[in-house]
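Quick one: structure for this chain?
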Amino acid sequence: MRVNRRAFEIGAIVIALALLGVMAWLGLQARDWLLPNGQPVFGDFIAFWGAGRAALNGAVAQVHDPYLLQTFQRETVPGLPVLAGWNSPPPFLLIATGLGALPYPVAALLWLVLGAAVYLFAARKLLPDKRALLFAITLPAAVYHLGSVQTGLIIAGASGLALYWLDRRPLAAGAIVAVLAIKPHMAVLWPIYLAFTGRWRAFGAAALSTGAFIALASIAFGFDSYTRFLENLPATQNLISGQRVATPAYASLYGNLVGLGLTQPIALALHAFSALGALLAALLVFRRGDASAQGAALCGATLLVLPYAFFYDFTLLAVGAAMLGAPRNKFETLALVLAWGAGLSLVLGYALQLPLGATAAWLVLLSAVGRARSADAHPAPKPRT
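Got it. Here's what it folds into:
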């Protein structure tokens, strides 16, 4: 199918430059690492760094206390008005502790560069040509990391590399899956995928590596650190379900429906219906599709299953789009375009919180279903297990 690729490239550059311009304008107004809107420079990273500082100062048991964390965060950002809590598991705290040993801006830039390097390395492996790297670089969900310095780049990069090496180097791929232990909900479908497709070497490597990561964190912080993490989850959930806090940062179907004013039971029911459909569609692709379609289905379904997902998490959807490769019809072209633009839900959400991310994820997933159905007559070779 012929598409005007040049027009898409120009559009991507213009949108990325606009986003960069806004972030630069806000950054130039910062004073003492504080932006005019009350948010810290480098955004959510202040929570990672603050948790690391708390751990280094012997406050591991209180690491989920946002008021305690704020005292450490204000060492670098005096007068910080927001509460940036720590909602991540102990394996991520291991990394945060290392980052907390560095000055705030140095740590933020190190995390940003590391994530960008892994993400772009994976993109180069997955994309059909070097020219397509332009879309990875200008991806709004990725560009936003310059302001938020979140985990989306490292999660997408690790997922992409694991998918790329899955049948080439299954043990390495499985080990890379362990990186997702820093945000375990982003790996929720990986065990199902590996088991359902019979990739047992990768499954074993993932299980052993993840277990080692968990054990290392237990040695460092005590096994009760996992108990505290689990006990803190209801407080995190309460931000949406209890207090009905719905900001444009939420990009899951559930979060968007709450933002549109639907009651929690209705929003949860609609999300559950969508999630079940996504899981069934993904299982179909896992059974019938080739590795590329399976990877796209995994990424799309993951984002549809999760009730709590944010704009930066949709960097992962770009990995699913890259797994599809060049579009074969108008439907796939639309899927790839929306997958690229899913992160724009943050900007558009200030006007209306439409489920852009969920729509894009469904289009990628349905494209993978179409690929799997078309491949039925030409089965892919079985993977090496």
